[in-house]
Amino acid sequence: MTKTLSSFYPIFDSADWIERLVPLGIKLVQLRIKDLPEDDIAQHIRRSQAVCRQHNCTLIINDYWQLAMSMGCEWVHLGQEDLDTADIDAIRAAGLRLGISTHDHQELKRALALSPDYVALGPVYPTILKKMKWHEQGLDRVAEWKALVGDVPLVAIGGMSVDRAALAFSVGADIVAAVTDITLHADPALRVKQWLEACS
């Protein structure tokens, strides 16, 4: 990779959040939108691109790899179900970098075979974001994953908070992703500042 990814990785479900919080100093962010028409998603991508370019923030698009390709994005994140239908050769040919979600050894093996630019493991802690068939992975699994992925950056996701970030880093996580710890906080801007301090 041409530059090291930030260790703080918030994930937001709209350009509204990105426009509001990226100017505070976020350098890595994911736009993860579900269940909207593609035209609307394109508008969110366009708005997110504008603010991220202005603030030198790396923007990662979840799932919508075809839109990401056509709109000149640099990164895409795919879950395991996304991998079933995504054209990885086309994604790579377009120069897109790729992050992949993993939850078990089989998924990790599949992900590493695709030479990802990062691997995400979750949920490290219980999460309220979505119902998952996987129970919390725990810090021991984070350490195990880091040993298995080697130099590939490892993202810890799921139930992460400012207080838990240091624990994840201590066992090998390179990057910590946060979702509801920010968006459900009484003061999201303050929480972002606390995250930036914890991950500096």
From TrEMBL:
UniProt record, GO biological process: thiamine biosynthetic process; thiamine diphosphate biosynthetic process
Record domain Thiamine phosphate synthase/TenI: where: 14-182
One Gene Ontology cellular component annotation held by this UniProt entry: cytoplasm
Coiled coil: none
Pathway: Cofactor biosynthesis; thiamine diphosphate biosynthesis; thiamine phosphate from 4-amino-2-methyl-5-diphosphomethylpyrimidine and 4-methyl-5-(2-phosphoethyl)-thiazole: step 1/1
Matches recorded under Gene3D superfamilies: Aldolase class I
SUPFAM superfamilies assigned: Thiamin phosphate synthase (SSF51391)
Reaction catalyzed: 4-methyl-5-(2-phosphooxyethyl)-thiazole + 4-amino-2-methyl-5-(diphosphooxymethyl)pyrimidine + H(+) = thiamine phosphate + diphosphate; 2-(2-carboxy-4-methylthiazol-5-yl)ethyl phosphate + 4-amino-2-methyl-5-(diphosphooxymethyl)pyrimidine + 2 H(+) = thiamine phosphate + CO2 + diphosphate; 2-[(2R,5Z)-2-carboxy-4-methylthiazol-5(2H)-ylidene]ethyl phosphate + 4-amino-2-methyl-5-(diphosphooxymethyl)pyrimidine + 2 H(+) = thiamine phosphate + CO2 + diphosphate
Assigned protein family: Belongs to the thiamine-phosphate synthase family.
Name of this protein: Thiamine-phosphate synthase
Organism: Marisediminitalea aggregata
